[in-house]
Structures are given as C-alpha cells and as structure tokens.
Amino acid sequence: MSGMLAGKVAVVTGSGGGVGRGIALAMAAAGAKVVVNDIGASLHGEGLSAGPAQQVVDEIIKAGGQAVPCTDSVATRASANNIIETAVQHFGKIDIVVNNAGNLRDRVFHKMSDEEWSQVIDVHLNGTYYVSRAAANYFREQESGSFVHMTSTSGLIGNFGQANYSAAKLGIAALSKSIALDMSRYNVRSNCIAPFAWSRMTSSIPANTPEEKARVEKLQKMDAGKIAPMAVYLSSDAASHVTAQIFGVRANEIMIFSQPRPVRSVHMSEGWTPESIAAVGAPALKSHFYPLERSGDVIGWDPI
C-alpha cells in the first residue's frame, strides 16, 4: 500500500478497540504493516481473549493491508519484548511504537489501595517503558524510529480520583522527553498525545451527578478515530523534525501543551531563611501560583 507510512512497521498497543483501534486502522491505511496488540481483557482486567486484536487484524486485511495480532501484555519486560519481537519476526523490522494500552482504577486518594495503584502504574508507565525499551535497540541499530506515547490532561493538569493514572501519565511525558534526549543522536523521535475521546476506558467515568452527566455527554461527542491522524503524522517522515513535544487532540482541534519552565524568581543577597521566605519570597511569587484546577476547569470549552 502507498501512503505516508509505506514500508514501515508499526506496533500499536491496546489496539483492539477505541483510540488504539483507530490508530491501527489509520496506520495500515497509510501503508504500514501493523502489529495489533491487545490482551482482550475487560476494563477491570478480567478475562483474556484474542478476539479484539484479531477483529482489527481482519479489518485491516479486508481493506488490503497487512497486520498480525498479538495478545501479550505490556506490563512485564518479557511479554513486552514479545510484542516487539512479533513485529520483527513477521515483518523483519520495527519502525513505529504507539504506546496506547491503558486501564483505570479510579479511587479518591485516601481510599486508594496499593493494588489499584500498582495495576495502573504497571500498565501505563511501566508498560510504556518496557515496550519502548524493547524497541530501543532496534531503533538505535537502524538509526531511525518513532515513539508515540499516550499521556493525559489528568497528569498534565489534574483530575479527581485519579492519583494512580495521573502519576503514570505525567511520568510518561517525562519518559518521552528523556527518550527524545537520549536517542536524538540516532534519529529517534519521541512525542506524546493527550487524547480527548470516548472509548471503553472513559466509559467507566462516573455519571451520577448532573455535573458528571454533563461532562460525560461532552466526552461522548468526541470520536476516538479523531486521534489517529496525529499519530500517523508523528510516525511519518514528514514529522522528522518533531520530537519531545506534547500534543492534544480533541475532536477537530489540535493543541500543543506547554512544558514546565521557570516563570519568576526572587533573590535574597544574604540567603533565605524560613521567615524571610514567608515575609518576602512567597508573597513575591504568589501572583504566579497555579490555582487548584482539574482538566475540565482549564479546557472547558465545547469541542468543535
């Protein structure tokens, strides 16, 4: 197939449905050979099935593309290695990794269990590391490659009841920056997308109060397939100059997110004491303090 990704081989994790499915289909339509990775479990991790991955593979093949399924988990080093090896064994190489696999275990922080914390960190943050690390040696040897990682405004801005998810997603943004820095000498790029989309994962968001119901209604308008064009672009040679960036995709809207930089400093020639910080330093910086906001407070306009 011809297209922006002709001749490339892509792994898309968590691509049995939702955002990942849209990306896998778009990658194939753009000419890539695709490993469709999904463990086929429920949102809470119960049951494993090859069905979701195979269904997407069947769609790609029916449309004239090339794809193979993979049901290995991203959450351990060994199984993540298997995901990348699936690409190499079937298609001879690996050019693109899209770290999309995810789960949710929402709980207010003071009630969160260690298991709920670990399950989310293992899939999102550790999974992104394991899959990326497995591909890194191939990228280094061939002196090319593109990583696309899914972050979230829950981490970039904040959200209620998602300490585990927020920590993982902000960690992914930092991991992406480090990969971009460490592997730039090998022409390897690493970028993030914060997707706004209705999917099986976001369908677990509570909708009990009028405010929660209104939020869910807005989310339901956001087509998961809208994320795919940015993922394809970032994976293509057309984006060879783009690395270490964080993009947001929200319906027909594309955003670029700021990254932390100093915005104000104060100096005390004789050095600071706790008392002088309270009297002078903190008041001088106060106008630049960030309010306690969640994602919906900052990005509150309706999608277009």
From TrEMBL:
<dbReference type="InterPro" id="IPR036291">
    <property type="entry name" value="NAD(P)-bd_dom_sf"/>
</dbReference>
<dbReference type="InterPro" id="IPR057326">
    <property type="entry name" value="KR_dom"/>
</dbReference>
<dbReference type="Pfam" id="PF00106">
    <property type="entry name" value="adh_short"/>
</dbReference>
<dbReference type="InterPro" id="IPR051687">
    <property type="entry name" value="Peroxisomal_Beta-Oxidation"/>
</dbReference>
<dbReference type="InterPro" id="IPR002347">
    <property type="entry name" value="SDR_fam"/>
</dbReference>
<feature type="domain" description="Ketoreductase">
    <location>
        <begin position="8"/>
        <end position="204"/>
    </location>
</feature>
<dbReference type="InterPro" id="IPR020904">
    <property type="entry name" value="Sc_DH/Rdtase_CS"/>
</dbReference>
<comment type="similarity">
    <text>Belongs to the short-chain dehydrogenases/reductases (SDR) family.</text>
</comment>
<protein>
    <submittedName>
        <fullName>NAD(P)-dependent dehydrogenase (Short-subunit alcohol dehydrogenase family)</fullName>
    </submittedName>
</protein>
